[in-house]
């Protein structure tokens, strides 16, 4: 288990070539005072047999896998097709580096170009980068980008955007000395447009709205667009890519930058990562966009080829003048998303969106029929906020029945007691939803 | 025709994946969602499953990975990615875990996260670690924001960050993104930070020095104790860029050198694959006095129970949603468990041995900016090739492709003209190093004999030399 | 240097996998096993993990699979192998199940085995199935032994088996291995069994006729009702070689045609991959009167419980240890569950459509032994190429490699000179068929223009034309 | 989920090309009386999401996976390294056919050549075929081969050979009209050599012995060789390939044919298949050996290449005169075995064999120490027969503790009551063995 290519004899030969008799001589330039005395204090090395046994034991402590999962809030249990896993698992993809040598990296480059195209089509935007870290950081980058374009320092964010995205934008904003203003959401769990309108002032670069929002609700994006237009600020939309199988592309309703979490597109839950942030904008802003971009060109024989382009925006060329410090992104996750979108295609992505939606609708209808709980939000895509008496008790009971019934909103908003955010995907069967309804005392 | 695209296999009505006959009632979308919200058309490919499989299988073969051969990309530590790591990280117990799953149902993942934090503390000599940053640059940003927040809380006004001229581009970009002014210090002739220059640069406005050690020339900054004193005496902090940690595991620790904040690259030092550009993971470690500034949450333990601790009073906030690239962390965790203390040290020793051995094999062909024992990588200059034959580092790189190797990093660090930055890593055998050296020699002969031909390389790749200028000029960024 | 071998990466002392420090006491082997039993040396490679990974990754790229492109190998049904089948059959619940695990702990596997037996009965029109045979030829042997045992029990002395001259080589070989004498019947000009000849051949010594339907020319033996009567009237049985079942799923069933014993090839018709030559699976079905002759055990059900039934009084015994290639059966099971009745029928319909369409595209280039609607495959003869240009079927095959296709089966069936046997399968798109036809046309032009060049094909493969004679002469069978 | 490449429009185009208006016309040659009326009676098709859910439910009915496994008897729970699975999973290997076109199949061909070499070295024989179906059928083929070579019709098999192998040999023998004589094993679970000696007569072609035998015991192979030599019959050995990491190669003690089950070499248990049978013999018998063989040759440029050779033995050339009817073999399993042997190598295979052995020895020593059960067999490699009072009850109790304690010998030999065949591999930890000892009431 050492992953060393040499034989002991070769090591000796090489040392001889170098004229040394101890490996330590190669570290003679490290001052004694900073050299480690003794060994690192780490668990003993394990051979592969022991390692597998040990980690399987550890894995079994993750009991959640046996549960029926109704959790969403930014990470969704959509089905990951076998094809996606099989192809992403080809070592030529996953053991390669950033495609700096285009002649030997056309696989990665073409896939990114396809990704850019598909995300552009999905969002209705002109240009797309090769991915950033995740949905939250894609929003943070968009906020910085808008401030840079507008040369202003303030962004107004709807409080119905995922709270961890808001927090991430704040943290990035702290770095760049940007002011992130958050407008509390309304009782119906929507953006408070009047307040947004109030808060957009002359120092504001952009407004941010999520579609659907954190609570699953479709926002009044026309109102958002009107405010942005009127106040001459940029209009940033955080979108759920699966929902775009059914919903109008933000480009059609005037978004300037569209960002979001790409995990639902063929990436596993993985306790929150690795995921991928997608980022799309209008052509005019391409040079202000962070991250890698692939462009089409030709090779010396005039044949089509792809290459990283517009690198003058990036840190390895431009250093402190770069649009962002990002270097590694989430290429393999973007590849998974690309293969997922290609495989599902026009019809399949609509199917997945539609099935997710009608499962949510079935839940809503059953709850309404029963009258034993209260649906708080309206016009939802695939997430429902349900208010249930004695939620804590029912939540515990659901867990005992091996159901993860959703996420208690009090996790994020302590005042939202007894409210549960329940997510639906095409994976949840009617049978499972009925099971949930029973556990919540609704059926 | 050149590189294929999936769109060219698309035809209206062709299907790969589909769902039909839902088990719940259908709805009228214009009622449930509202007509104005619905999209008219969705322009995605229409292809069959076999189309998808063949297309991406074909694309994969137009790539080159570590599994295909030697990949001595300097500064990137392209070591072998053990298959057991992939197998373990694909276990559904881990992949199907929702980030908001109740902690009592996620103890397995929380445990390895906790232990990994501890391991990284031990390996780097730091006190606390966050796993949240998704990549090296993300870690840098985290680290510098921690320093910024620390200064804010302590009320100090320091607006400058020092970076050596040999630093990674991410360093100045990060400092800038964090609102600092960048001060560059020159390297001396020995390739190390010029201490006199550094002393001049350090004043009461300096927040921190960002340093890679060994540096990007592959040289250990042996004055690090003095550097640390210089900075700390003026109240500035030391930031460690962990890109080159693979040279010193178990041998020296940034924490012991005086660094206050470090990031490590799990996708370099800890053997997780680079995935064609990501995902990486860039955990950040700090000395105890900075713990409360870490992004939220970190994993802690109470008795036998692991939990997410959000109680970090001065936290910078968060760098992303959730907790980091946990799937990547798991691979790094299995790597550390496989190697243990001895194995990690051996990895660094062999990485350094390989670099020095390979340097010895090829140094006669090039100009060598600094002739000293190197650590895990070394830099040579092809300026002699350029002068004599008009052959550039770029041409050498392309020709190496023909010989079945991935070329080294070129044109970095910026302080070396026509730089080739070569990092063989410990997982390569002597045979691989010898073969690479032999190919460089052959290319040198070719450069002498037929320099014009070099500009037409590579010959045997899926595409010929790619026109980068045209791409930037025409900006065709989608199909 | 040619194709590499792992032995060339071996060096004394190099290590990949190793176990050290057992958790139980060591022993002195000469005591516990006895010195005379111990081996002195073990000559296996000594390589590192990265050596192994790179070597076999490299070898894989010297191969061509269905995922790489069109593979119209007649009689082999090289259809696409769905990835979901692979994913499901790799689930540890299935792979880690010991064959002697208590039945109550193996109900999942026993259930799909039971259901697959039922599915195969329904698809073929038979009454009982065994999953034990590991491949088509193994199934044939099973089936013929069942017939032999049946004759033994019924006390009939019949020592002949009839095979058509177009049959697979496995048919006569199987009949011989079962102790029968082979009687060959000729095909008529229409490519079908010559009924007059058949009648002549059938007498009281005939145990059975082995028939593929559609036959190896891709033609349906439409006289099958009469053939069945001829055989059964004389007390002989009908054996169905299921290699070509992909033409008729959901359309016609061997059981309804009068066959008494059938085998099916899960690795052809039911989409499981061929693995470079195996594993396959060749389940055998029988009419009710032969149930007790099946190899032991078969899976049966009592209430909700599935169990292995060993109570088959006249069983031939067993064809292998355990119960068959169950991992392969599982893939076929997921295929049937994915497609259902309509999907299977559609598969056959499209397979036949593709064959007829492709035949139409290429028939002008060749001589066509029988011009009729074909089923899932068709045979053409390149004897016109040979006569006119001296270009043989073999040359065409090699040149097709250069064009990115796997060639068809050549020189089979034996009754057609310079045969090319082309089976496109249903998973190929019209584009693939058109591209293949276009390449054949181009090759025809090449054959006209430069026939000598054809013998030097392929040009663009990992190796050039391979010397088969030298291999057989020198018999170098190990390194 | 149809796996069809066409669009509906293309299907129409193609039908037009063929001049048909209904697909049914393509089946006009099938007589109505044999055409199926109506649809097949099969479960409704499932999309991939439903399928995965359905099969996962079915998979969970295989409870055995959660148990600690001490079962052997011809199928062993050795560790399958991640490397083996990753490489065998490359689609170029598993979606290819038999390497009939050597120019495009060098991957498979080279791997088989390596396999032949490694098995030859492991067994100490000259030539090896590319695999047959499994251990049992490899024995059956060896029996037929010996009869063919010796032109005789009788084979004497030790009763200590795996009973299912014996049964398989009998079934094959029934086909070829061969007489399979089985000699009952002794009280110490070994071959009864005197009886074997008695039973070998002038019509006998070979004797068969298993090493180690079905009960785990190392047989007196010298005695076997002496009998074979004296009586001029062939000496067939059934070998466990892992044991050959420590044990003398059968070629060294005079075996003429060595066969066995290759599953322990990197192949999963899979409820009994797919496995692979290996088969090795002396050079002089190569033309009598069934199955495919790969030979080294050169290509048109004189470079080394590999190709299927000696095909004149095979059914597709020689039809009824073939050495066997075998066509498909277990190529992918042989590839797994090849990669396994390459990866483990000289040292690793010894390690695995040694660890398996000392775990068995630990169990034996603990049982002996306790005196509460009786070890029946001696000189074992990795399988132990232990006699335990009230075995049935203890067996049930062990199952309740999620241990598969081994295989009751009464499954095969009804008279062997209270006797359990327990197998050990490098995967079983001391902790697990202690757990078993407790469950059996020994510790």
Question: What brief labels describe this structure?
Answer:
heterotetramer; A: 443 residues; alpha/beta; Aspartate Aminotransferase, domain 1; Aspartate Aminotransferase, domain 2; 4-stranded antiparallel beta sheet; 13 helices; 15 strands; B: 479 residues; 3-stranded antiparallel beta sheet; 38% helix; 11% strand; globular
Q: How would you describe the overall organization of this protein?
A:
The complex is a heterotetramer, with 2 copies of chain A (about 450 residues) and 2 copies of chain B (about 475 residues). Chain A is about 35% helix and about 15% strand. Chain A contains 13 helices and 15 strands. Chain A has a 7-stranded mixed sheet, with helices on both faces. In chain A, α3 (about 80-90) runs antiparallel to α11, α5 (about 105-125) runs parallel beside α11 (about 330-370) and α11 (about 330-370) packs across α13 (about 430-440). Chain B has about 475 residues and is an alpha/beta fold. In chain B, the strands form 3 sheets. A 7-stranded mixed sheet of chain B has the order 1-7-6-5-4-2-3, sandwiched between helices. In chain B, α11 (about 325-360) crosses α14 (about 430-450). Chain B is globular, with a radius of gyration of 25 Å. The interface between B and C is medium-sized, with 22 and 22 residues. Chains A, D: One of its GO terms (biological process) is nucleoside metabolic process. Chains A, D: One of its GO terms (molecular function) is glycine dehydrogenase (decarboxylating) activity. Chains A, D: It catalyses: N(6)-[(R)-lipoyl]-L-lysyl-[glycine-cleavage complex H protein] + glycine + H(+) = N(6)-[(R)-S(8)-aminomethyldihydrolipoyl]-L-lysyl-[glycine-cleavage complex H protein] + CO2. Chains A, D: The glycine cleavage system is composed of four proteins: P, T, L and H. In this organism, the P 'protein' is a heterodimer of two subunits. Chains A, D: It is an enzyme of class 1 (oxidoreductase).
């Amino acid at each position: 288990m050492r992953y060393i290519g040499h034989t002991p004899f070769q090591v000796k030969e090489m040392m001889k070539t170098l004229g040394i008799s101890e490996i330590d001589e190669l570290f003679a330039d490290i001052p004694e005072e900073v050299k480690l005395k003794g060994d690192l204090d780490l668990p003993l090395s394990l051979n592969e047999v022991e390692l597998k046994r040990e980690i399987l034991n550890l894995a079994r402590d993750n009991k959640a896998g046996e549960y029926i999962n109704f959790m969403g809030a930014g990470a969704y249990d959509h089905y990951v097709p076998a094809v996606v896993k099989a192809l992403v698992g080809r070592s030529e993809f996953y053991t390669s580096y950033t495609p700096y040598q285009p002649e030997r990296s056309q696989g990665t480059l073409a896939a990114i170009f396809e990704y850019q195209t598909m995300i552009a089509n999905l969002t209705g935007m002109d240009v797309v980068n090769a991915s950033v870290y995740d949905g939250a950081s894609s929003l943070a980058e968009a906020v910085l980008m808008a401030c840079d374009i507008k040369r202003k320092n303030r962004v107004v964010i709807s409080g119905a955007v995922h709270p961890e995205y808001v927090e991430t934008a704040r943290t990035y904003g702290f770095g760049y000395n940007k002011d992130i203003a958050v407008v509390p959401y309304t009782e119906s769990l929507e953006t408070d447009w009047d307040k947004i309108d109030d808060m957009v002032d002359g120092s504001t670069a952009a407004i941010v709205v999520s579609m659907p929002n954190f609570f699953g609700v479709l926002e009044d994006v026309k109102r958002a667009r009107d405010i942005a237009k009127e106040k001459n600020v940029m209009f940033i939309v955080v979108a759920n890519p699966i929902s775009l199988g059914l919903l109008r592309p933000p480009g059609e309703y005037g978004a300037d930058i569209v960002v979001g979490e790409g995990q639902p597109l063929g990436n596993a839950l993985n306790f929150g990562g690795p995921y991928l942030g997608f980022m799309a904008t209008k052509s005019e802003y391409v040079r202000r966009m962070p991250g890698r971009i692939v462009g089409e060109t030709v090779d010396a024989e005039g044949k089509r080829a792809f290459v990283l382009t517009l690198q003058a925006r990036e840190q390895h060329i431009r250093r402190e003048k770069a649009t962002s410090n990002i270097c590694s992104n989430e290429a393999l996750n973007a590849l998974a998303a690309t293969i997922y979108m290609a495989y599902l295609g026009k019809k399949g992505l609509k199917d997945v969106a539609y099935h997710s939606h009608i499962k949510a609708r079935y839940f809503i209808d059953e709850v309404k029929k029963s009258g034993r709980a209260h649906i708080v939000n309206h016009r939802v895509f695939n997430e429902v906020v349900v208010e249930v008496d004695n939620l804590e008790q029912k939540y515990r009971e659901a867990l005992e029945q091996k159901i993860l019934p959703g996420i208690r909103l009090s996790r994020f908003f302590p005042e939202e007691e007894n409210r549960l955010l329940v997510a639906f995907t095409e994976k949840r069967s009617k049978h499972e939803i009925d099971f949930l309804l029973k556990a919540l005392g609704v059926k | 025709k050149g590189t294929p695209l999936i769109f060219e296999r698309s035809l209206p009505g062709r299907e790969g994946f589909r769902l039909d006959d839902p088990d719940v009632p259908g709805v009228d979308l214009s009622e449930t969602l509202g007509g104005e919200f619905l999209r008219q058309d969705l322009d995605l490919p229409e292809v069959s499953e076999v189309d998808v499989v063949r297309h991406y299988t074909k694309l994969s073969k137009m790539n080159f990975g570590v599994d295909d051969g030697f990949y001595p990309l300097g500064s990137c530590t392209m070591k072998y990615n053990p298959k057991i790591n992939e197998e373990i990280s694909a276990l559904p117990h881990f992949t199907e875990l929702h980030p908001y799953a109740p902690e009592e149902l996620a103890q397995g993942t929380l445990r390895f996260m906790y232990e990994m934090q501890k391991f990284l503390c031990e390996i780097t000599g730091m006190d606390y670690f966050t796993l949240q940053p998704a990549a090296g640059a993300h870690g840098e940003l985290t680290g510098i924001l921690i320093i910024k927040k620390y200064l804010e809380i302590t009320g100090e006004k320091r607006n400058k960050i020092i970076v050596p001229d040999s630093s990674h581009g991410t360093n100045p970009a990060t400092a800038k993104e964090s609102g600092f002014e960048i001060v560059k210090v020159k390297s001396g002739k020995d390739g190390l930070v010029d201490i006199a220059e550094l002393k001049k640069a350090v004043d009461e406005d300096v927040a921190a020095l960002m340093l890679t050690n060994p540096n990007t020339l592959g040289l250990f900054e042996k004055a690090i104790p003095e550097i640390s004193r210089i900075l700390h005496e003026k109240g500035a902090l030391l930031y460690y860029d962990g890109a080159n940690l693979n040279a010193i595991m178990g041998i020296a620790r940034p924490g012991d050198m005086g660094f206050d904040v470090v990031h490590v690259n799990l996708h370099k030092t800890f053997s997780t694959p680079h995935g064609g550009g990501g995902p990486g993971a860039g955990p950040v470690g700090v000395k105890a006095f900075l713990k409360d500034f870490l992004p939220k949450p970190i994993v802690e333990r109470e008795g036998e129970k692991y939990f997410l601790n959000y109680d970090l009073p001065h936290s910078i906030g968060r760098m992303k949603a959730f907790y980091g690239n946990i799937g990547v962390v798991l691979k790094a965790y299995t790597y550390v468990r496989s190697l243990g203390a001895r194995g990690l040290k051996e990895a660094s020793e062999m990485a350094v041995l390989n670099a020095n051995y390979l340097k010895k094999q090829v140094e006669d062909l090039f100009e060598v900016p600094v002739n000293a024992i190197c650590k895990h990588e070394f830099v040579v200059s092809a300026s002699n090739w350029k002068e004599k034959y008009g052959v550039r580092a770029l041409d050498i790189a392309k020709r190496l492709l023909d010989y079945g190797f991935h070329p080294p990093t070129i044109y970095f660090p910026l302080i070396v003209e026509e730089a080739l930055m070569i990092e063989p890593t410990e997982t390569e055998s002597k045979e691989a190093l010898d073969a690479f050296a032999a190919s460089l020699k052959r290319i040198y002969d070719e450069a002498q004999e037929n320099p014009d031909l070099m500009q037409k390389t590579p010959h045997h790749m899926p595409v010929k030399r790619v026109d980068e200028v045209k791409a930037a000029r025409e900006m065709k960024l989608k199909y």
